[in-house]
Amino acid sequence: MFRPRLLVYLTLFGSLIQTTQANQKLSISTNSDNSVFILIDSTIHEDYGLSYPLTYEFNLPGTLPGLTAYKRYSRTHEWTELEERDTSMFFNGIEVVRFVPNSNTVFISTTFDHDSDSLFLKVSDQSGENIELAYQGMPVYYDNRAAAVVCSADDWADWFDGFFPYAVSVFRDHNLWLSVGIISEGCNTATWNHIQEQLDLGMVEAASHSRNHPHVPYDDADYEVSGSKADIIENLDLPPSFRKGDREYVYTWIAPYGEYDDEIDELVAEEQYLVSRMYTSDDYSFPAWVEDKSFYGSVGMSREVGPFWEGSVDIDDLNTSFDTAYDLNGIYHLMCHPHVLSQENIWNANYIWDHLDYVSNHKDIWYASVGQLYLYHLMQDENSFTTLGVSTSFNNHLEFDLFQNFPNPFNPTTTIRFMLNRPEFVTVTVYDIRGRLVKAITSRQYSHGSHKTIWDGTDMLGHQVGAGVYVCQVQAGALNQTIKMLFLE
């Protein structure tokens, strides 16, 4: 399931560091007490919230009985025990630990706290001793499931308001999340209240479906794309997995009529939607990461259930589509128009209920909203937010950790982050690739904990440096570490 990790031994200025070359969303290190320290990039944390559990895979040194997993968000907090689950139980999107019998593997699923970029994990044996954990990566799906199922429903506005609560309840009763496309300008106070009621009952994602459901080209694309997101945030209290403290997030754009153009695409990226759901069938996989826009672009659905447009009423076709997704270890995306299903008692058709029964409540499938699926994938995907240099360091015997700068590449400023296990005098210096001094950024005493400093891309005289690779050296006491940084003009 995972690509082989490339181990690199980077030697600069006499410092030898064992690293894993990957991206810089997460920096992971093993402490001398065998606990694991995970640091998320603060910008990504703020921009996307990350209140949905991420799953981390670790190898254990052997088959050991009576293990317990714990988490905490800082070195000063008490450890919190994680609930243990196994594959005989049905669960999704919760903080748990799952030990895999006879494989020396453990999957830990947990969230970041909204007030902290740090996460500490440990696994202890019956005597309370911490077990050595070897980080393997993040599985493609939550809890290392075989496939994923998401569902979406279009056109929640005043004129279809009466059809949605029942549709949502049907999907919820099958333990299926439903991402509802809201036409925000078409929602009066009563409709917003009805949407809020369903959000509060759970398993509903508020997705943007524009303000007025126009055809392309839009008269005012910013009004439709940015405005609809603002309306959702202003009129609704979004669920915990779509929040970071007081900040709320709308991850999914559902394109009206499945129509799209470059202007919409730019605004969807600018507004930090993670994905645009189009109106095409037979899609079972993630789209590629769009590096220059920092989102996943557009994706279709697998099947629409119902008699009109893209819909299917053939139970064999619907079930086979689900089987295809499962066989591909892919994503089954079921879509519907609730107002269509409510016409002429279509809800009474057997194929709808038979298909929902067929796709729901499997213990080896991850059930999530569209936004949660892509939020998790954002962190798991090796291609998103790729950067130059060192990503993950395993510094069991070092007294501090240096993490990759972000953003990287950058222009004109970048943030350099480091963690001290004890108070130290720290010097942060930038050199060019030939080892010539460019700028001394800071040199002072720092307390124990996480710290960051900014380099503005200038030299000692305040002149902007040229494009190229630069080396940041952080010296803490007698120890030093380095990272490479790429400046772009």
Describe the structure.
By secondary structure, the protein is of the alpha/beta class. The protein has three domains: 25-138, Sandwich (Immunoglobulin-like); 147-380, TIM Barrel, CATH 3.20.20.370; 399-487, Immunoglobulin-like, CATH 2.60.40.4070. The protein has nine helices and 32 strands. Strands 13, 14, 15, 21, 22, 23 and 24 form a seven-stranded parallel beta sheet that branches. It has a five-stranded antiparallel beta sheet with strand order 3-4-11-6-7. Helix 2 links the parallel strand 13 (147-156) and strand 14. Helix 4 packs parallel to helix 5 (262-270). The longest helix has 15 residues, at 221-235. The chain is globular and about 75 Å long. The model is unreliable at 1-23 and 387-398 (pLDDT under 50).
Q: TL;DR?
A:
The protein is α/β, with parallel strands linked by helices and 489 residues long. 19% of the residues lie in helices and 34% in strands.
List the topology elements:
Elements: E1 7-12, E2 15-20, E3 26-30, E4 36-40, H1 42-48, E5 54-59, E6 68-72, E7 80-81, E8 83-84, E9 96-100, E10 105-110, E11 118-124, E12 134-137, E13 147-156, H2 164-173, E14 178-182, H3 189-201, E15 204-208, H4 221-235, E16 243-244, E17 247-248, E18 252-254, H5 262-270, E19 275-277, E20 298-299, E21 303-305, E22 311-312, H6 315-327, E23 331-336, H7 338-341, H8 350-359, E24 365-367, H9 370-380, E25 392-393, E26 400-406, E27 414-420, E28 424-432, E29 437-446, E30 449-455, E31 468-476, E32 479-487
Parallel strand pairs: 8-9, 13-14, 13-23, 13-24, 14-15, 18-19, 19-20, 21-22, 21-23
Antiparallel strand pairs: 1-2, 2-25, 3-4, 4-11, 5-10, 5-12, 6-7, 6-11, 9-10, 16-17, 26-27, 27-30, 28-29, 28-31, 31-32
Helix pairs in contact: 4-5, 6-8
